[in-house]
Amino acid sequence: MCDFYTKYIMRNILIIGAGRSASSLIKYLLSKSETENLKLTIADLSMEMAEKKTNNHPNATPIQLDIANVDHRQREIQKAAIVISMLPAHLHIEIAEDCLAFNKHMVTASYISPKMQELDSQAKEKGLVFMNEIGLDPGIDHMSAMKIIDEIRAKGGKMIQFESFCGGLVAPESDTNLWNYKFSWNPRNVVLAGQGGVSKFIQEGKYKYIPYNKLFRRTEFLEVEGYGRFEGYANRDSLKYRSVYGLDDILTMYRGTLRRVGYSKAWDMLVQLGMTDDSYPMENSENMSYRDFTNSFLAYHPTDSVELKLRHYLKIDQDDVIWDKFEELDLFNGNKKAGLKNATPAQYLEFILAEKWALQPDDKDMIVMYHKFGYEIDGKKKQVDSTMVCLGDDQTYTAMAKTVGLPVAMATLQILNGNITTPGVQLPIKKEVYLPILEELESFGVIFKDKEVPYMGYNPNNVGS
Q1: 146 to each of 137, 163, 168, 292, 422, how far by Cα in Å?
Q2: Long-range contact list for 59-64, CB < 8 A, 24+ apart?
C-alpha cells in the first residue's frame, strides 16, 4: 500500500488556477497522462471552471480550492509531486512556502518577485526546482534569446546589441476594429501598461529613460514577413536582464511591447486625457454615461460640445483616424453607462474596452515575437533577426493560452522526469531547460525564423548619442 501511495504521489500534478491561460497547459498534460502515468488535480476557486477544464478526463480530478483555506491548500500540496501555480503573481509566495515545507517542486509563468527570490537558498538546500518565468513573456522570450546568444558565444562572437519585442494581438482575419487590437489576456494589464515607474534601457552605451506620460510617443517600427508592420514601445525595465543573460557590458539592451502601427499614438491621447489613471475613485461614477466620463476630463465651456472640446484639447483634426477610433469606442455616447460605483478612470475605461475589444466567438488571436541580436566577430559587426508568429485555434485554445501554458506544462514534465535537475529559484536560461522545450514547441506551431541581416545598430558611424 505504501509503495502504491508513493508511486501515485510521484506522478501527481497539482494545478492551482484554471483560468484562460491554463487551457492548453491542461490539455497538454492530459494528452500525456496515459503514457506518462500522470494524475492531475485541477484546483480553482470556481468548481465550474475546474470541471470545465478537466473535460471529464479519467486522469483529472477537479476540486474547488480557496487558497486562503490553509489546511485544504496544504493537504492538496502534500498529495502532489509538483505544483503549478497559475494564480496572479502576488499569490505565488504562499504556495511556494508550502512547497518548501513539504518538499515539492514548483512551476509558475510569473516574474520572480523579491520574496520568491528569497527562497532560493532553501530550495537549493532541499534540491527543489522552483521554475518561474516560463510562460510567453517572460518565458519563450528568455529561451529563444538564450539559444541564439549561446550560439553566438560558442562561435566566438561578442554581443553588442539585444532587442526583444512581444505582443498579444488579434489575427489578421479577425482584425475588425480601427485600433487593430482585441483582448486575449487580462484587460486591466493592458489599460495599466507602462505605469508604476519609468521605462529604462541602454542605447549605444547611453542610459535612456521614458516617463509614463511620454511612453507611447517613443516607438520603434518593425516589419514581420507575411504579417506587415508593427510598432514597439519600451517595457518598464530593460536593464534587469543584462546580468541574467550575461550581457553586463552590452551597448544596447531594449525590451518592448508590440502593437499595430497607429495604436500607440491613439492610446497616448487616452493617457493625456487621464483615462488610464488608477489612483483615485470618481464621484458618482455609477450614474456616469460614457459621454459624461469623457467630459469629466475636459474644461467646462457654456456652449462648446464635448466633441469640440476634446478635439481642441488634444489638437485632433476632424479627418484624423484617431477621431474615428474615439468614436468607435462610443466615448461620446450619452445613453451608455458602465454602472460602476467608485470606479477609477482606468476601471471605467477598462469596462468600455472590454466590450469593444472582446474576441468574438469565431475570432482568433496572434502572438508576435521579434528579437534582434547584434554582435561582433573577427572585427566585423553582424546581426541576426529572429521572429515568431503563433495563431490561436479558437476562443479556448488561444495563441496566448498556447504560448503561456505549453512551456509551463513541458517544464513540469521535464522536472517530473528528472531531465531538469538544477535546484533553486530560477528562470529558463539553461540549455537543459530551453533546448528540449523550444524543440517540442515547434510541433505546436511556435517556430522561430532566424535570418542574418546587415548590422543596423543605432549608431553605426559613431556619431551622436
Answers
A1: 14, 12, 21, 50, 17
A2: 59/30, 59/33, 59/34, 60/26, 60/30, 60/33, 62/18
Identify whether the C-beta of residue 122 lies closer than 8 Å to the C-beta of residue 145: no
Whether 105 and 254 share a structural domain: no
How long a stretch of residues is the chain? 465
Q: Are residues 104 and 187 in the same domain?
A: no
Residue 83: other Cβ atoms inside 10 A: 27
70/25 same-domain check: yes
Model pTM score: 0.91
Of 102, 131, 160, which residue is a domain's last?
131
Interstrand relation of 365-377 and 158-170 (parallel, antiparallel or unpaired): antiparallel
Same domain flag for 122 and 180: no
What b/e sequence results for 125-134 when a residue is b if at least 16 CB atoms lie within 10 Å of its CB, and e otherwise? eeebbbbbbb
Final residue belonging to a domain, choices 98, 131, 164: 131
Relative orientation angle of helices 321-328 and 263-273, to the nearest 10 degrees:
70
Classify residue 343: in a domain, yes or no.
no
Contacts of residue 247, Cβ cutoff 8 Å, sequence gap at least 6: 149, 159, 162, 241, 253
pLDDT digits (tens, 9 = 90+) for 77-115: 999 999 999 998 889 999 999 999 999 999 999 999 999
Asked whether the beta carbons of 106 and 83 are under 8 A apart, the reply is: yes
Q: Assign residue 418 a region: left if phi > 0, alpha if psi is -120 to 50, beta otherwise?
A: left
Q: Are residues 251 and 369 in the same domain?
A: yes
